[in-house]
């Protein structure tokens, strides 16, 4: 692999990332063990941003319950203190983890720094995971959280015309893209439309979907990266097969494969980040092109020599810091595209 030099050095110092995971210890299920290993992988990112949190006096955070089919989920609401009577744009965030791993804690500290720096509220969604809850539970939980934001905008001190963004990483980016399609057809959002989507390392089509001929030659990375750390072809197939097994009714559903929507017109502006050494790379590049060809506003950044989710493992290296700086600038750009667009950092 032609890794970024800092990534190559970091991998050499952390050889476990390039080896198959160890088997689960006695009494621990494979699913639980995978989640434990994922938490170890995410830990450097959590620690890095926990050490850079703004003073607690600068923001408000609370966990809230959202009703979903079959129960309730938690969303973590963060906003700057702001001035009395001030209102904020909002980013609804969906974490990654292959629909099977991760939680609101993995991005929590990072999102708090973004909230204060960009003067934006964040709703961080703890959707239910597979295999306990298979498709469409995660996407429908996430969609319910986005609707909850509309219904509670006043009490959350939100002005959705300033910015109503949905975003996520990997599986979370997949669901963010799907949510924009679903919201486009929902009367609830007619008066409160989503104004932007932030897709980091997105999966946008099920590997078992009936891919149109014009797309097949444009998605080569999925079969090329069979040995990359964190995510490779084999474990992506395992994740998607657990979340949404591949009979056509699941694989071709736009809630799993937003690339296959009949139309991508009328969707909100998109900011997309992809890694060069990622099986999902070509999907992100293709999706940006499809959105742009449909008349959408887009920005795409590719990170050479980087693998999927590298920033969670090595948040202090130059490429990870650049990815984060670009993310903040991308969110600012999305906010300027909203009807009440503004310069981030003002109420």
From TrEMBL:
Keyword terms, alphabetized: Hydrolase
InterPro entries: AB_hydrolase_3, AB_hydrolase_fold, GDXG_lipolytic_enzyme
Native species: Polyporus arcularius HHB13444
Keyword Hydrolase attached: yes
PANTHER family (UniProt xref): AB HYDROLASE SUPERFAMILY PROTEIN C4A8.06C, ALPHA_BETA HYDROLASE FOLD-3 DOMAIN-CONTAINING PROTEIN-RELATED
Annotated ranges, domain Alpha/beta hydrolase fold-3: 91-311
GO MF annotation: an example: hydrolase activity
Pfam families: Abhydrolase_3
Extent of the signal sequence: none
Transmembrane segments: none
Protein's UniProt name: Alpha/beta-hydrolase
